[in-house]
TrEMBL record:
Glycoprotein as UniProt keyword: no
Domain ABC transporter: 6-234
Protein name in the entry: ABC transporter ATP-binding protein
Record GO terms (molecular function): ATP binding
Keywords, alphabetical: ATP-binding, Nucleotide-binding, Transport
Organism: Microbacterium ureisolvens
Length: 234
């Protein structure tokens, strides 16, 4: 397999205190290869989103290490952390809503704005990303006015506008009908195949998991299985 782009070891994460204390991750170790597509599956509440947030450097573990391209991320703070996230990652998370009153292209270029890219270049790259997702004609519409599947494609356009190395997707097809879901899936796997973008996908959908190179199963905060999809199908 290719060299790991992410290496995590012994990740633990506890939420809350006292009676509300909950150990969401209880020691997770995992390597993710560059260019790989990885599915993270498991029951509701098992810790999938928690793990994803840690991998994407959106939250910090209580203990354990996360190496990005061999470099320990523990020391990354503030502007450097933001820059690293912005440069390396794209996010397809349902929590990261589109701003409904802003136009589609303004939503797409948000990561570029954060990265300090100038207005004209932002617009050029935003329109190119929308073009890739067959949404160029909606660039000027308010995000609010799009259909569910179109919104999800805008989220993908936003995730790829900064030319990321890794796309993190949490239930990318969860709220979509089957046909639209498979369009969104196809887009993600095309990005993986043709641009070598590493995919890390949390999903409840077995078919989507089966399309990935590999899947890991989390149960109660512990990684219990790591299956190549071919084995999983056997
Ligand atoms: N901020 C928080 N405070 C307290 N507990 C939390 C917090 N966030 C998550 N948890 C708990 O941690 C556990 C793991 O949550 P997580 O969101 O990672 O689950 P998940 O596997 O993504 O579930 P789902 O499939 O429903 O999205 C759950 O039991 C949840 O209730
Ligand atoms: Mg979740």
């Amino acid at each position: 397999m290719s060299t790991p782009i992410l290496q995590v070891s012994g990740l633990r994460k506890t939420y809350g205190r006292g009676q509300n204390r909950f150990e969401a991750l209880r020691g997770v170790s995992l390597d993710i290869g560059e260019g790989e597509s990885l599915a993270i599956v498991g029951k509701s509440g098992s810790g999938k989103s928690t793990l994803m947030h840690l991998l994407a450097l959106l939250d910090v573990p209580d203990s354990g290490r996360i190496l990005l391209e061999g470099n320990d991320t523990a020391g990354l703070r503030g502007a450097r952390l933001n820059r690293t996230r912005n440069k390396t990652f794209g996010f397809v998370f349902q929590q990261f809503f589109l701003t409904g009153k802003d136009s589609v292209v303004e939503n797409v270029v948000l990561p570029l704005k954060i990265a300090g890219v100038g207005r004209r270049e932002r617009r050029r790259r935003g329109l190119a990303a929308l073009e890739q997702l067959d949404l160029a004609d909606k660039a000027g519409n308010k995000a609010l006015d799009l259909s569910g599947g179109q919104k999800q494609r805008v989220v993908i356009a936003r995730a790829l506008v900064n030319n990321p190395r890794i796309i993190f997707a949490d239930e990318p097809t969860g709220n979509l009908d089957t046909a639209t879901g498979s369009v969104v899936e196809d887009i993600l796997f095309t990005l993986n195949r043709e641009h070598g973008i590493t995919l890390v996908i949390v999903t409840h959908d077995d078919d989507l998991a089966a399309r990935c190179d590999r899947r890991v199963v989390i149960r109660d905060g512990i990684l219990v299985e790591e299956l190549a999809v071919t084995e999983a199908r056997a």
